[in-house]
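Morning F.,

Quick status update on the modeling queue. The single chain you submitted on Monday has been processed. Sequence for confirmation:
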Amino acid sequence: IHDGEGHPSSSHQPLKGTSKWATSLENLLEDPEGVKRFREFLKKEFSEENVLFWLACEEFKKTQGKKQMQEKAKEIYMTFLSSKASSQVNVEGQSRLSETILETPHPLMFQKLQDQIFNLMKYDSYSRFLKSDIFLNHKKSEEQEENSPEAQTAAKRASRIYNT
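Structure tokens below.
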């Protein structure tokens, strides 16, 4: 189905914003605005370190060069995993992680821990986020923008004119 200008009708438009965030945590984490809102929510829940750790691991996987990997691995360890970490995440097997693994880093060295944190967010914080004021207010303002006269296309305006 196409509108008068040959574009697919709105029912086939790709999801964006809060609609996309609500479909999966993966979609939320792919959107910088979604990450920002989710961080805002987690900060209120005192668990922002979870998403920060997850993001740091994603960034770490893209790191090139042994020296840079060692530096980033140490930074992740000291920030999130060490017993003295400033933003410690709560993961199983953490006590067995020692600084010796930082000598020979590899892109997926934090994968198991990252997966634990992802699942913790997915089955815990994410569902609460979707019910939170932060999410609902953002969704509401998105809907108001979409329904504003400026957001309506010429085709929609034209069809309204001719169908009255």
